[in-house]
């Protein structure tokens, strides 16, 4: 029997300190912050596949791939430090240097994450002032400092007993626009005091990303700065968790839940969104096809606009399914909107449009597709397409 | 030296008659029409790749692939007759039957095209009345009857001397939403009185579609009913054009121009659009990569919203390029917006945001990308993402 976990209000796990300040990168909100572990922590990461990978993302990736260890993370919003060439790389090194000096650690233990406008250099004088002002406190303001057009913080904190020790897992993220991770300006972090072997941490993250963060979309645009990092500093004092450890299934389930819920928070708070759309596809020949169909549906502008309008226009769902390369018989496809069957055997089923429309008014819409071609399932999450999405993105940089 | 062509106001070529009526499939506009050739015409087509291919599209495809000949086309808007199963197929046969009887021809010479809502059966009593009311006149009302959310007809008429004979090429199309052809509820037709061999006609169409209709996008959704058809009835009396004929280059150029211009009209009149976006990509390793990048850029919601807001936010263009799988060095990429260089060598170039924003106000925006990785070029066309797109699509069926 697996030990269970408990959700609790957001705190940092043992051995972590944090702070955030307003370094005037933007008009009024917190914009620079850090997270510091008292000891070097096992680190794992997944990163954007965008060929214009931002300097902070690229450098943090190199660090983790080399030593699988980080002790501090410095972050900023407002500027993504992407498409900034040599200068961008130098600026990241400078950030690492400032943080390392303050903490009396080596610069290669300092990860860097940036989010914001692409193609502007970081204002380094402001960054320096900001970093110098950071303290090692227990506040959780960092979860606010990384937000851009997000309307709320995205956090989840779980505790569980692992190897007889109480461990805390604290996840936080930012999302909003340019969200279509393949591993968005999407940043996600889960830090824990649990002791977990670095390769085990990386294996879990790589596996779980495919069915969590990589299954959300706000607008189909894959950012230059996407990154999800896990840190595990082992301060809880448990025996190190490896993939062979008896508590491994529990730890993996914990991360699955954390990554899924953070991903859903990002989808729900997509730019301009009024609701979360959860698509479940059953009966696919492969899991990959199930996930591809689910992601195609939440990615369709027409489906997203229909959901905003509470319009049970299932033709758009069917059309999206048909545009995928998945293997199935169009005459066997079934579609349910919030448990109302609208298509069976690939053909219309009579239903009350009024009742269906009413049900779409809720804050979470469930689309359920069965393509009856196999035994595999997949899920994806997205949001509706609204006037506010257009408004936000027609007036972002100027 | 190639003969030139002349553009003229829209008429039907010799040997064609047409008509359209209001069959009350929708509230007030023309919704059923036909086009009839006095003799069987060579026919070529390209069709949606959506797995839920609509009945009219599937059946017309079968007809053309079998006999490469059509004499009449019957069309309707309001209902797509897609996802309508057996009944949908029967209804198409019935339409063919009614038209064939009226014209005293065989049903397999009657092509059928439908566009509109997916998943509703055709109201056959109304269709019958509509078809029975059609006359063989010279009016061009058919170009209106196929429109759905289109704001204007899309037509182009060219004349040229082919083999010593005056030939007329009359192209018309409908587009608007669910436009991301891979071969959208996109319908395109070019009919001519020129005599052209059927295989030559099909070869030209298949080749040209890849760089014309397949390079436009309104919303990234590939419809169930997309179809582009060419008819050539030979009534002009010229010697049959084959791929070896000396006039073949001229004829191919004519079709290239017609298909490109119809495709651009569809992109410009995308649902809610205020402007046409033309993206040119140079310096790609292959033509396919150039076309893929161009189409990804016009397909990005963030780019489209920025264009609506006259926001020279080139970071979104760069990010979209980077998210493709094309082969290039990010440090060699250059981007121009209406001839204003905004990125060179993958990095920001100082420019007047005010001047750039001002230039984006024009009705056609030119995005020019050079990835400096090879000698191939590609183009794609799209439109901006506006409040009206959301409005139209949040309230379509209900």
TrEMBL record, chains A, B:
Its main location: cytoplasm. Keywords: Acyltransferase, Amino-acid biosynthesis, Arginine biosynthesis, Autocatalytic cleavage, Cytoplasm, Multifunctional enzyme, Transferase. It is found in: Cytoplasm. InterPro entries: Arg_biosynth_ArgJ, ArgJ-like_dom_sf, ArgJ_beta_C. It catalyses: N(2)-acetyl-L-ornithine + L-glutamate = N-acetyl-L-glutamate + L-ornithine; L-glutamate + acetyl-CoA = N-acetyl-L-glutamate + CoA + H(+). Its EC number is 2.3.1.35, 2.3.1.1. The record marks 115-116 as: Involved in the stabilization of negative charge on the oxyanion by the formation of the oxyanion hole. One of its GO terms (biological process) is ornithine biosynthetic process. Gene3D superfamilies: arginine biosynthesis bifunctional protein suprefamily (3.30.2330.10), ArgJ beta chain, C-terminal domain (3.10.20.340), L-amino peptidase D-ALA esterase/amidase (3.60.70.12). Catalyzes two activities which are involved in the cyclic version of arginine biosynthesis: the synthesis of N-acetylglutamate from glutamate and acetyl-CoA as the acetyl donor, and of ornithine by transacetylation between N(2)-acetylornithine and glutamate. Belongs to the ArgJ family. This is Arginine biosynthesis bifunctional protein ArgJ. It comes from Enterococcus italicus (strain DSM 15952 / CCUG 50447 / LMG 22039 / TP 1.5). The lineage of its organism: Bacteria, Bacillati, Bacillota, Bacilli, Lactobacillales.
């Amino acid at each position: 029997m697996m030990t269970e976990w408990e959700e609790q209000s957001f705190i940092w796990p043992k051995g972590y300190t944090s702070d955030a300040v307003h370094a005037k990168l933007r008009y009024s909100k917190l914009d620079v912050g850090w997270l510091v572990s008292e000891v070097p922590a096992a680190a794992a990461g997944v990163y954007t596949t965008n060929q214009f990978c931002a300097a902070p993302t690229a450098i943090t990736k190199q660090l983790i791939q080399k030593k699988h260890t980080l002790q501090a993370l410095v972050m900023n919003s407002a500027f993504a430090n992407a498409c900034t060439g040599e200068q961008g790389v130098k600026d990241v090194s400078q950030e690492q240097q400032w943080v390392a000096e303050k903490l009396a650690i080596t610069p290669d233990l300092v990860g860097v994450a940036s989010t914001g406008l692409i193609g502007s250099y970081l204002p380094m004088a402001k960054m320096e002032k900001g970093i110098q002002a950071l303290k090692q406190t227990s506040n959780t303001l960092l979860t606010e400092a990384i937000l851009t057009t997000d309307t709320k913080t995205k956090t989840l904190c779980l505790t569980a007993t692992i190897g007889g020790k109480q461990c805390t897992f604290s996840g936080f993220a930012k999302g909003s626009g340019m969200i279509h991770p393949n591993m968005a300006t999407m940043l996600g972090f889960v830090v824990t005091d649990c002791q977990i072997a670095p390769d085990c941490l990386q294996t879990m993250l790589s596996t779980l990303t495919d069915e969590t963060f990589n299954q959300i979309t706000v607008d189909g645009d894959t950012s230059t700065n996407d990154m999800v990092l896990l840190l595990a500093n082992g301060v809880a004092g448990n025996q190190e968790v490896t993939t062979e450890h008896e508590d491994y299934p529990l730890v993996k389930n914990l991360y699955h839940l954390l990554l899924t819920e953070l991903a859903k928070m990002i989808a729900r708070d997509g730019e301009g969104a009024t609701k979360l759309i959860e698509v479940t596809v059953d009966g696919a020949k492969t899991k990959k096809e199930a996930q591809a169909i689910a992601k195609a549906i939440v990615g369709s502008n027409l489906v997203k606009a229909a959901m905003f309008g509470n319009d049970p226009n299932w033709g758009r769902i069917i059309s999206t399914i048909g545009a995928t390369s998945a293997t199935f018989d169009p005459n066997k496809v079934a579609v349910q909107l919030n448990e109302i069957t609208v298509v069976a055997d690939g053909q219309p089923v009579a239903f009350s449009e009024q009742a269906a429309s009413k049900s779409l008014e809720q804050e979470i819409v469930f689309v359920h597709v069965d393509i009856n071609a196999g035994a595999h399932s997949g899920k994806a999450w997205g949001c509706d397409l609204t006037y506010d999405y257009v408004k936000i993105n027609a007036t972002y940089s100027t």
